[in-house]
Amino acid sequence: MTTDGDADETTSDAPDSEAISPYTLQREEASETRHAFWADTVADRVEERNPEEPIVIKGGISPSGVPHLGNVNEIMRGYYVAEVLRDRGYEVRQVFTADDRDPLRGLPRTLCDLEGNLVDLGEVDAGALGRNLGAPYTDIPDPFGCCDSYGDHFATIIQDSADTVDVPIELVSNTELYESGDFEDVTRFVLEHQDRAREVLSQYQDKVDEDYVPFNPICEECGKVTETVTSVDVDAGTVDYRCTDMDAGDQTIDGCGHEGTATLREGKLPWRFEWPAQWQLLGVDFEPFGKDHAEGSWPSGQDVARNVLEIEPPVPMVYEWFTLEGEPFSSSAGNVILVSDVLELLEPEVLRYFFAKDPSKARDFSIERLDQLVDEFDRLEAIYFGEVEADEDEAAFAERVYPFVVDEPREERIRLPYTFAAVLGMTDDPDLREEIARREGHIPDDAPEWAVEGALKRVEQARNWARRTGNEFDYELKRSEIPAHDFDAETEAALAELADFIEEGHEPDEIQGEIYETAKRHDVDVGDFFGAGYRLFFDEDQGPKLGPFLAKVDREFVVDRLRRER
């Protein structure tokens, strides 16, 4: 959830005797049922309200730029609560608002096309964006020329991101809600009670004075959102305005000075009123949001809901943000990754598992250590099917969560260990990949074809991971012909002896140790001997840990290559 920028100018949290803490998971009551899965705790809170069906779960984003993996947090947290409620027999809608009538307040340094390719601002029509500062996202031309507007472009990517992880959101455009008149009744109500609205908001924002009007018209002359309303005609459903300057962080967006009249469909509510208005309009029962809103928009939002709109706010839940490689997500700094990028590296169910973890704890999403996340998921799956030992808490979590993470639990599924799959990715030969996986015991003889195909898909994903990170598996096995080499007699004799050892059949660690011992026996520098191995198999001077690699490739090929026979 992001806002249109007016959430930062706060004074203090106003007193509210009915205030609901948004720290739903952090502050469980001692009398509450303890669940294995956090989403059950939230679902209990929703059920306590005896909601009408369909139960509505909401999220939202201001489509101001690259919709990266961090933005999916809200979608996935809402999804799990929705799934738990569906599991309990309720009809549920998961809506996600594109707050696309927000004004563009600054030029992003990085954008992305619909395929997820990141581009610098200079690679698109930056001038068109600069001329539209202050205008609603849906009134700004798409810099890529493929969608109806800037807002529609990034909303499309949000929808695509949800689709790729099979989360059925209903994407709702704020602009469409205003233009269709859906927002008109609640907007009129706020303006009818603007004295009360002003009184409530003044407890949270310094800029609220006696002239403040909770409506931002769109200037008919320059197309920018303005905050200066000079009069209101509630009966006619219009406001008079003057187009004045807008503060946007460290810059000012110039207004054109035009004086005009706008209808209630030709503008927007300020964020502090728009958010509660969405709750009323959409009938929202639960909404998760980031911790920035916990001390900002949420306190004022629930106050506005009760004391201006006269509705009950939804069940809230604060989630912790997660980082990428230990740093905050940042489009301007290039520290972003899209859902489409992640799904080139792992299965959708692994990504879904990441978001199933406790949202009250901060976590890091690391591409470098992606193998650890995949291993975690594989363990969860194995626990669910009773294939590994687990403590009571682990078993309860797996039993509850796993069916929500996968499309269908199937015990016959096969998961190749991620780093082993990366080793297989060193060869392009699909038959060889399967042959090695079978020989290593990762694919049973009686495995169904669909399970084999699914298992081998991970090879390409692990290979992409190796190439993206440039790690120890980012090498190509030279299988078709022996790379050019020139070894002295001692090295050739050592290679022949190592071939004999491997031909006998030994474990990876034993082979690794024998490489050292063989080099010593033949008075060959250990580093040079490893280099000889890398030269023969990769045509490189370095490579993965050699012993485990040689143990995983088909033995006959390894022996022949060490003897320089093929």
TrEMBL record:
Which keywords are on file for this protein?
Aminoacyl-tRNA synthetase, ATP-binding, Cytoplasm, Ligase, Nucleotide-binding, Protein biosynthesis
Motif 'KMSKS' region extends across: 328-332
Q: According to the UniProt entry, where does the motif 'HIGH' region sit in this chain? A: 63-71
Question: Is this entry keyworded Iron-sulfur?
Answer: no
Compositional bias, Acidic residues, is annotated for 1-11
* Plastid in keyword set: no
The cellular component terms of Gene Ontology attached to this UniProt record, alphabetical and capped at eight, are: cytoplasm
Instruction: Name the InterPro entries on file.
Output: aa-tRNA-synth_I_codon-bd_sub2, aa-tRNA-synth_I_CS, aa_tRNA-synth_I_cd-bd_sf, Lys-tRNA-ligase, Lys-tRNA-ligase_SC_fold, Rossmann-like_a/b/a_fold
Q: Which GO terms describe its molecular function?
A: ATP binding; lysine-tRNA ligase activity
| Region feature (Disordered) | 1-32
Tell me a GO biological process for this protein. Answer: lysyl-tRNA aminoacylation
State the reactions this protein catalyses: tRNA(Lys) + L-lysine + ATP = L-lysyl-tRNA(Lys) + AMP + diphosphate
What's the main place this protein lives? cytoplasm
Q: Where are the transmembrane segments?
A: none
Entry-linked Pfam families: tRNA-synt_1f (PF01921)
Q: Where in the cell is it found?
A: Cytoplasm
Q: Which SUPFAM superfamilies match?
A: An anticodon-binding domain of class I aminoacyl-tRNA synthetases, Nucleotidylyl transferase
Q: What is its EC number?
A: 6.1.1.6
- Highest taxon above the source species: Archaea
Query: What family does this belong to?
Result: Belongs to the class-I aminoacyl-tRNA synthetase family.
Classification via NCBIfam families: lysS_arch
Recorded hits in HAMAP family, A to Z, give: Lys_tRNA_synth_class1 (MF_00177)
Q: Could you identify this protein by its name?
A: Lysine--tRNA ligase
Which species does the entry assign this protein to?
Answer: Haloarchaeobius amylolyticus
UniProt gene name: lysS
